[in-house]
Amino acid sequence: MIKLGLIGFPLSHSFSKNYYLTKFETENITDVNYDLYAIEDIHMFPSLFLNDEKFKGFNVTIPYKQSVIGFLDELSIEAKEIGAVNCITVQREDKEIHLKGYNTDAFGFEKSLTPLLKKDHKRALILGNGGAAKAVLYTCNKLGIPYSIVSRTAFSGDLTYKDLNKEIIDNHTIIVNCSPVGTSPTVDQCPEIPYDYITNKHLLYDLIYNPQETLFLKKGKSKSATIKNGYEMLLLQADKNWEIWKENF
């Protein structure tokens, strides 16, 4: 039995386990299992695979997408540039173990964003600059989309939320929420941007997928903006993980 799993803490709510186990059942894959490994300290990570040759890969989630890099032997091009990993392969040859990290969040974001892009979508406003934003910034750079980062404090971004005005909103027709604001159960919250200046030329993308339509997206929808949640991105990165792991089986 091949083992795959997700590391992070806490892991009380995870899309990944249900997704992969359902996939395995649907596709009659009987020799692979996927489970959750809630580790309180990233230094517990090697204990999972060092003495268990069944492990072939991991997903990584909060808060370890950056700190796990210190345990890896190699990074893919995008993972190295982004500085965050959400997918790992475990390769074994004789007694040597080789861990390689990937970032499939960027793949998922790019593939779900590009079909929505129109001629009006020339600059992006990125809300938040934590780990979730890293793949978004990488994708914007790759697609040649200039961006400004909005943070709560001036020293951690280009702009603060208080700086936002009509001119800035007019000039940034792609707005991506990379913050956790609005995630269930706090569905009555949204990033504090001047929604009155949103128009039908805007594209609002929320990395959040629970709830399906956040208050951020509802406010954009009320202004006839194009809206998109993070669910397709999640599916795309999950399928990409599976492709990467399968090559290593």
TrEMBL record:
Key words, A-Z: Amino-acid biosynthesis, Aromatic amino acid biosynthesis, Oxidoreductase
Keyword Amino-acid biosynthesis set for record: yes
Pathway(s) the chain acts in: Metabolic intermediate biosynthesis; chorismate biosynthesis; chorismate from D-erythrose 4-phosphate and phosphoenolpyruvate: step 4/7
Domain Shikimate dehydrogenase substrate binding N-terminal residue range list: 6-88
InterPro entries: Aminoacid_DH-like_N_sf, NAD(P)-bd_dom_sf, Shikimate_DH-bd_N, Shikimate_DH_fam
Name of the protein described by the UniProt record: Shikimate dehydrogenase
Source organism of this protein record: Sphingobacterium faecale
